[in-house]
Design goal:
The protein is built from 5 helices and no strands. By secondary structure, it is mostly helical.
Amino acid sequence: MGGQLALEEIRMSPEGSLQRKKAELHLFMANVLTVVQLVSKSSGYNSKRKSVWDIMALGSDFDNIKQPLTAYPDASYTAKLAEDIEAFLAQPENISSLFTSRQIEELMEGFSPEELTEKIMSKNAYDFIKKQLELQPKLTGPQAQK
């Protein structure tokens, strides 16, 4: 996760405080929005074919996080993270000098906070797995019994 400014804000906030939780959510959303911004500006991006929001999903294993988000320490906090993401997108706030609330609204591409939260938290991962399973050849006969 990036952003020295955001990490400093987290370090300066008392653990368990509302200020710390907000700083951690801002760091998470800054990472999500940076991906959206970079992909949507890339030369191969075609928003008519598929939105960048349709290919982004959150993993639940928290692998390789050097500084875990204390407000969401493990996968059991997924529902709370989803609630906080939706609330943030419903009333976007400036994230340091990275994104203004207006830029965030533009990056939402007309999707509702509920739609984006569902996409990030479950729908995109579900759709990806479903598509991959549909692409698998159907086994019949003796091969299916192995």
